[in-house]
From TrEMBL:
Belongs to the 5-formyltetrahydrofolate cyclo-ligase family. The keyword ATP-binding applies. GO terms for biological process: folic acid-containing compound biosynthetic process; tetrahydrofolate interconversion. NCBIfam families: MTHFS_bact. Its cofactor is Mg(2+). It holds the Pfam family 5-FTHF_cyc-lig. GO terms for molecular function: 5-formyltetrahydrofolate cyclo-ligase activity; ATP binding; metal ion binding. Its EC number is 6.3.3.2. It catalyses: (6S)-5-formyl-5,6,7,8-tetrahydrofolate + ATP = (6R)-5,10-methenyltetrahydrofolate + ADP + phosphate. This is 5-formyltetrahydrofolate cyclo-ligase.
Length: 181
């Protein structure tokens, strides 16, 4: 029940922040990614009221591979298909846009959407566990930087977390960069 309530509160804060947002909120995300030029990364195609990383992904694609998540099925980790600005897209599961033709890649940096975050690197997602399973799998093979991207208003003092929840290494908002405690 605590996660349901925290998720509802996070969605409400995100909705309000999204409605108030003006223009490109990617300045700080672009700044962070500039320090990792050429490193394979995965972003996401924003849905509904998610903060949109597309401008930063477009910049990064000029220097190295960029992918977007493709859901393989319930209970499975995500896979990432190479994305380029202007590539043909199709509707994937849950309505997220994915490349028309899958060209699988493995990122070393993952820009993670979320519902709520804490300054300690906690993240509350949609409840499917896709990113937790994915980050656990990637981190078992190589160092993987998880960057939570959100509106500052999505911050929560405390989140109900479980041992399987993967921590964020950085949180980037339209107001700045947060290094978890």
């Amino acid at each position: 029940m605590a996660k349901v309530a925290a998720r509802q509160a996070g969605f409400a804060r995100r909705q309000a922040a999204h409605e108030a947002a003006r223009g490109n909120a990617c300045g700080y995300l672009s700044e962070v990614l500039a320090g990792y030029r050429g490193v394979p990364l995965a972003g996401y195609m924003a849905m509904r009221t998610e903060i949109d990383p597309l401008p930063a992904m477009e910049e990064a694609a000029a220097h190295g591979p960029v992918g977007v998540p493709v859901i393989q099925g319930t209970g499975l980790p995500l896979r990432f298909s190479r994305w380029e600005p202007g590539c043909a897209l199709r509707d994937g599961p849950f309505g997220a846009q994915v490349p028309e033709v899958d060209d699988w890649m493995e990122p070393e940096i993952v820009i993670v959407p979320l519902v709520a975050f804490s300054r300690t690197g906690g993240r509350l997602g949609y409840g499917g566990g896709f990113y937790d399973r994915t980050l656990e799998r990637l981190r078992a093979h190589h160092a993987t930087l998880a960057i939570g991207f959100a509106y500052a208003a999505q911050e929560a003092d405390v989140l109900p977390l479980e041992p399987t929840d993967q921590p964020l290494d950085l949180i980037v908002t339209e107001r700045g960069i947060i290094t978890p405690d």
